[in-house]
Amino acid sequence: MTSADATGDLTIAGRLLRPDDGFDRWLLEHAPLWSRSARFMRRMMAVPGWSVGPLSIENGTLHIGGWAVSPRFALRPPSLLVNGRRVRRVSWPEPRTDIDNFFWYVPQRLRGGLTARVPLEDVDRDGDGIEVGAVWRTAGGRHRLSSFFMCRPEADVYPLPDAQRRMRVHGGTEESAFRLVGYTSMRQVDGALRTVMNRPLNSFASILDWGCGCGRLTRYLGGTTSAITGVDIDSDSVAWCATNLPFGHFLHIEPDPPMPMPAGGFELVIGISIFTHLSEEDQWAWLRELHRVLAPGGIAAVTVSGNAAVARSGIPVPFVGHWLHVGFLDVGHSTDLDGAVDQPDRYRNVVHTASYVDTKWPSAGFTIAGRIPAAIGGHQDLVLLQRT
After folding, report:
1. C-alpha span between 372 and 380 (Å, rounded)
2. In the CATH hierarchy, which top-level class contains the domain 49-154?
3. Cα–Cα distance for residue pair 72/48, rounded to 1 Å
4. What is the pLDDT of residues 233-254, one digit of tens each?
5. Burial class (CB in 10 A: 0-12, 13-18, 19+), 124
6. Sheet with 2-4: strands ordered across
7. Could you tell me which residues come within 8 angstroms of residue 253 by beta carbon, excluding any fewer than 6 positions away?
8. Predicted TM-score (pTM) of this structure
9. Domain boundaries defined on the chain
10. Which CATH superfamily is domain 157-387 in?
């Protein structure tokens, strides 16, 4: 068994590994097991992973930070694109030891950091947003990596929730990361709808943000002409949204359906990082409820944790193998909502394989219209469900 524990130390076959703990001698003895586990994880990961952050504008310059790692060897850095224009200079590889715990099986993980600086005068105008994308040629081929989107500061007009509320939704308190993931989620949903359904986000007359939290994504729906409704089991966050996001209608809901709204009332439901926290039993109840509140032909844009998420999760290798076999794995209780909701033990961390979603979810009355791997933060897969 291979795992990364809560302290970040690497454990293989029950032995805690540290550089000063006889690592060389241990590796000579157990190298075959470690090598097999690492090869298995690299095959599961399959394609490069990356993340952007911090992303900021200072003194007329866009500062890009992040990391990029590949299961296959890479000699050159990813080619960064800002609003479609290639960045002339990218600094990579740079030390980035914080990802070592999750990508223990990737040879170049300790130097996966990247940085770049781009004068704003070189950034083509693209509405209110700045897109940072990447193309990377590795030994495994050419890969287009999922884009991140930053809302220009002058367009990000609504109040920001306090650090405690951000922590419950985002798992961290950093303001720029909260904004980045929220705006990226909105833009990725819009892009998927345009590509797969040939409809932009603002073409939907009624939108439900299912699990809106304190408005991480919802705040970026204020510029649409759609009627916006947000719901969440966190009553405090719902109250904050009702006070600070005046364009929407916000409701507290219970952990179990039904929601207090009529059938067929929404053309689009957005659910970012909701199915990633539901038990398998609760998942089926909420799929049926989304089917109920969607109009015929309506779309649910939801996320699941798939290969990209598992690749950076630290889940022990035998459990990864079991997950690939059965398709669904409940990793355990998430503490993010402890103290904020009733029955917090029902808030789980779960992962889905693509085949599980594709073969089982249609039984709830949906067609799988599209899937974009690692669309949200290079982490969660975005799935488009169309109500039949």
Report:
1. 9
2. mainly beta
3. 8
4. 999 999 999 999 999 999 999 9
5. exposed
6. 2-4, 10-12, 15-17
7. 231, 232, 233, 259, 260
8. 0.90
9. 2-45, 49-154, 157-387
10. Vaccinia Virus protein VP39 (3.40.50.150)
